[in-house]
Amino acid sequence: MSDPQMSNAQSSALFKRSLSRFVRFRAEGPPAYGMLLDEEQIREIRGDLFGKWEATERVHQLAQRKLLYPCDPPKIFAVGRNFKSHIGDKRPPTRPEIFFKPISALQNPEDPIIIPRGAENVHFEGELVLVIGKAAKGVSVEEAREVIFGVTCGNDVSERDWQIGPDRDLQWWRAKGADTFAPLGPILVRGLDYSNLLLRTRLNGATVQEQSTSDMFFDPPTIVSCISQYVTLTPGDVIYTGTPGTTQRMSPGDVVEVEIEGIGTLRNPVVGADDAFKGRFLLSQEAQLRVRPSRIQLRRGNP
Question: Whole-model pTM?
Answer without folding.
Answer: 0.89
